[in-house]
Amino acid sequence: MSWHKTWRKFVNYFMFSLTGLCALVTVGALFFILGYLLWHGGSSLSWAFLTHLPTPVGEPGGGMANAIVGSAKLLLLASLLGIPIGFMGGVYLAEFGGQAFSSVVRYTADLLNGVPSIVMGIFAYTVVVLPMKHFSTFAGGLALGVMMIPIAVRSTEEALRTVPVMLREGALALGASKWKTIATVVVPAARKGIITGIVLDVARVAGETAPLLFTAFSNRFWSPGWNQPTASLPVMVYTYAISPYDDWHRQAWAAGLVLLTLVLVANVAAKLSVSGRSAS
Amino acid sequence: MTSSDPGNATLLKPRSSPAQPLGGTAAADNVKMRVSGLDFYYGPKQSLFDISLHVHTNRITALIGPSGCGKSTFLRTLNRMYETVPHARAEGEILFDNEDLLTMDPVALRRRVGMVFQRPNPFPKSIFDNVAYGLRVNGTHRWSALQEKVEKSLRRAVLWDEVKDQLHKSAYALSGGQQQRLCIARALAVDPEVLLLDEPCSSLDPIATAKIEELLYSLQGQCTLIIVTHNMQQAARVADFTGFFLLGKLIEFNKTEIIFKTPAKKETEDYITGRFG
User: Fold this and answer.
1) Which of A:133-192 have CB within 8 Å of B?
2) Whether B133 contacts chain A with CB within 8 A
3) Superfamily of domain B22-272, CATH level 4
4) I want to staple B65 with a disulfide (CB 3.0 to 4.6 A). Which of A35, A111, A161, B245 is the partner?
5) CA B25 and chain centroid, separation
């Protein structure tokens, strides 16, 4: 009889360990990557790396200031395109949409989200690069911005749906029109979820390389304008990592470290800024 | 008190004249809302049948009846709040100061007919911003005017002394009873002609309930109040007029004293004496 009991205890213990192990792997993966980046890239990371232009092969020093600024410009363009469209679309789905049309929009957004990022690159290449006959920051921003839309739509919609009906009714009962209710009560009440969703969205496209390869392309120097090709951190990591030079490999690790740090800082900052004043 | 005819017979029998409202004894110019022949549907399901009654100006009207009898639905037709529910529709006539309430602009209507809900629903904003919300929506932005109005409304809702030093704290820091009084202050701030209260005390303890009742009593004469309640003692304590709803029909409507002491219908008497519901 006790054989059953032993077996049951064993299964219980085994499953407990297995699920615990999987949870540990999840947390561990982030710290492993961070540690590995620090190990390989930490030595190349310096003030000069953040503030100087790349140097030719063999010449020591040099940095990726142009790629950091380039990534920032690309993300700014992508946000200007993706956040308003995604946010408004999410408001429509949560507050105004009729049954049939909304489910079509929702399904389309999910499909758009599933489009491989390289295909987004081809799309921006066809729409912007081919007619203009050169690579540009605009083209890269467009590719990243379109990628941001579906996640912004869905996360905004989800956040708005968590706002209780009684808050909406409270505002309507005071003579607020529907859009005023949404703007002054519903959106502020869902602010935390909306901002978190959008920051995660920006963080996701910040690391995208494929859509930039033939849109923003790359640049060894400061990008002369929004209409010109620009360097970006992910493309720099890619170019430097496949090069045959040890010095460039180390710089690729350092660039990866900078990218990951920026994304983590943005994440934590967004979390802190919204949790501090959730109900005031 | 009444004849012992079987309750079901009177229940199913249509009233003789649907246009003749129950309890229409007061002079016509004292009537704020004149409801006649109101039917209400949620999709194909009819929830209110041929409701007719008069709501008297600056008096307290209580609506009582068992759960699901349609009293809340009726209340939500008076500020057209039912329109947030898809496929809900009202038929019949409601005159609000001789204007047709069912075809008015709902936003304009709700600025004149305020509502307090079953559970306190303050906005996730400061106490001050909660009370000022309706004023701002209605176009008041001058700081001194807002301040004056917020204080006056909080005083009317008997909440001022408890919150005057923490107006800029979150409304969520208040207790349930305080939150409900805040919601009343928020509704009063826009000076509504009519205030609808949908079981405002159902989530509150007896002490908080007593405070709200005192507050309602103090509003008498300033504002027309319509209160839906499960609590018959509450209706008897605060209301001038009482209507009894059953299965979507208004069984009886009269002065509170008459409803509770000498009801005309057997169903009313049965409900009030606790024989069902």
Assistant:
1) 164-177, 180, 184-185, 188-189
2) yes
3) P-loop containing nucleotide triphosphate hydrolases (3.40.50.300)
4) B245
5) 21
